[in-house]
Amino acid sequence: MSLALVHIAKGVVIWTLVPSNIAGRTKKSVTSTVLFVAYCAGNSIGAQVFRAQDAPLYIPAIVVCSTMYGLEIVIMICWRAYYMWENKRRDKAVEAMGLTKQEAEHQGRLNAEMDMTDYENIHFRYSM
To answer: Cellular location of this protein (predicted)?
Structure first.
């Protein structure tokens, strides 16, 4: 039961955070496609670790699944730390430009209309 809740919770986080933290139409489309293909491949491969000879406890499969969930948690923590660091770096850069928060947000919207990616747009902020 608890593994199912973890699986549902991480799915919601991944499927909502990725699109909201990517700018640029093409980059967002490509990233969403790659994410979907990787998700499908992972689910297909993951089912293969449940072998009949390991029944009824499936200890090797439980170890693999637990390890992957642990790795996913570490990656999510690192991802969040990177976004926090990048937002602070961008805040300092915009502050050095002498722009107010409202001017920076306005410029960010203008840059988004020019289809700038999140790397190109210094005014883009990652959500967490």
So the answer is: Membrane
In a domain, 124, yes or no: no
Asked if residue 68 belongs to a domain, the reply is: yes
From residue 31, alpha-carbon distances to 26, 56, 71 in Å are: 8, 38, 21
Range of the domain at 75: 2-113
Tell me if 62 is assigned to some domain: yes
Q: Look at residue 78 in the predicted model and tell me its pLDDT.
A: 94
User: Which tens digit of pLDDT belongs to each residue from 15-37?
Assistant: 777 778 888 888 888 888 898 89
Q: Identify the sign of the CA torsion 33, 39, 42, 43.
A: negative
**pTM score:** 0.78
